[in-house]
Amino acid sequence: MLTSGILLSSLLSLALGSPISPRQDDNYTPPLTFGVIAARSASPVHLRSVNANGNAFWIGKDTQTYCPQIPNLVCPPANETQQTVFAVGDGGAGPGAGLYTIVPGGQSIYVAPTGALGFTTAHSAYIPPGSAVQTFNATAGVGGTLGQFTFEGLGATGFLACPVNRNGTGPYQVFADVDGLSDEDVPGGGVDKCLGFNALTAPYTPEKPVWQYA
């Protein structure tokens, strides 16, 4: 697993990589692809990566991926599967967001009515009823700075990192701070233990996308 410092520096160094261009359509704008880093000074989540694991997003859990044994399918090397890569369509202008994968059908990102930031299972389009799949936006940053990943649906005012343990320690599950978020919705016993953070983006395009996140 990459440490936060190594992750941050590696993402910044990759920010100059070429954009994805799967189509040669003049009207097509490739998605913005990026890693997400939490920013909340003097907190245990500061400058740590947001990772996909178990259909949820976490700070303090490793990214979890899967690549099937299919003839002629070349799985990406291990160092390309440690980072969760997000994608927001139309160059970052939304309206939807997903994970950067090659599995047929893709994997969409959503915010559940409970506020939990989640992603769809591969080969399934199921999203919990009442979830929001739009109003995601991302910026790439200018002049070597980091951009931001935002969600404005369901009355959300930002992102939260909610500890799974009642003593307030991680790992931390990522939620949107939606209207009506209650203690029953989050792990760890209460919303008051959650830490608000800014979701910073570092543009990142791996040489080969993962097959799927798991």
Structural summary, described in words:
This protein is mainly beta. 5% of the residues lie in helices and 28% in strands. The protein is built from one helix and 14 strands; from the N terminus they run H-E-E-E-E-E-E-E-E-E-E-E-E-E-E. It has one helix at 4-14, and strands at residues 32-39, 51-53, 56-59, 65-66, 86-88, 97-99, 107-111, 117-119, 136-138, 147-151, 159-163, 172-176, 195-203, 212-213. Strands 1, 2, 3, 5, 6, 7, 8, 9, 10, 11, 12 and 13 form a twelve-stranded antiparallel β-sheet that branches. A two-stranded antiparallel ribbon has the order 4-14. Strand 2 and strand 3 form a beta hairpin. The longest helix has 11 residues, at 4-14. The protein is globular, with a radius of gyration of 16 Å. The two termini are 17 Å apart.
Low-confidence stretches: 1-24
Main sheet makeup: 12 strands, antiparallel
Count of helices?
1
| Percent of residues in helices | under 10%
Structural class: mainly beta
Distance between the terminal alpha carbons, to the nearest Å?
17 Å
Elements, N to C (H/E): HEEEEEEEEEEEEEE
Number of strands: 14
The average pLDDT is 86
The shape, in one word, is: globular
Question: Into which percentage range does the β-strand content fall?
Answer: 25-35%
